[in-house]
Amino acid sequence: MIDDCTALVLAGGQSRRMGGDKTRLMLGEQTLLQGVITVVQPLFGRLLVSVRNYRPDIDAPQVCDAYADAGPLAGLCAGLAHAHSDWIFAVAADMPFLRAALIERLAEQRGACQAVVPVVHGHPQPLAAFYAASCLAPLLAILRGGGKRSLRLALDVLNVCYVDERELLPVDPGLRSFFDLDTPQDLAAARQAEGL
């Protein structure tokens, strides 16, 4: 167990491309949200689900965005503000193939940095990443600044340890952990991959 860390599952997106709340979509016997919770809960002492507004259908502690329409950056800040732990592991609720071994490998990279972010096919993956509590102040400054609220751009103000995909392939050979479901076609592909 990663004791000094809270798992933060971001479930506050608007799911525009999916056409409906994707966290409630079924993949096998579980919703997408339940599937991610099932992976992260055994690894961490604490769990939070980040939402835009409180949802009675979620049977887990929730934190609500303090900034409307600010995307995942608002969810990350809400999680950091309420986690009361040295670190959080932030993951999107639409990543059904997340592997525990990959999370554990990323956790090993924490040190003097503020964030541990995987890089896959040349792109940072900020929603399968570790963030130290010290990230809250600089990220809040971006939220309050009135400029672009991109989580990837926000990484520029943090001391980030980027983890190349080559270091992750031994624990996730197909890098399936980073497959996220944004469209009905993505969901169909995921169901086909699982033989559903």
CATH level 1 name: Alpha Beta
Mean pLDDT metric = 89
* CATH fold description: Spore Coat Polysaccharide Biosynthesis Protein SpsA, Chain A
Given the C-alpha coordinates, what overall shape results?
Answer: globular
- Terminal residue distance: 31 Å
Report what the structure shows:
There is one protein chain. This protein has 196 residues and is an alpha/beta fold. It has one domain (2-189): Alpha-Beta Complex (Spore Coat Polysaccharide Biosynthesis Protein SpsA, Chain A), CATH 3.90.550. 29% of the residues lie in helices and 24% in strands. Strands 1, 4, 5, 6, 7, 8, 9 and 10 form an eight-stranded mixed β-sheet that branches. A two-stranded antiparallel ribbon has the order 2-3. Strand 7 and strand 8 form a beta hairpin. Helix 2 runs antiparallel to helix 4. The mean pLDDT is 89.
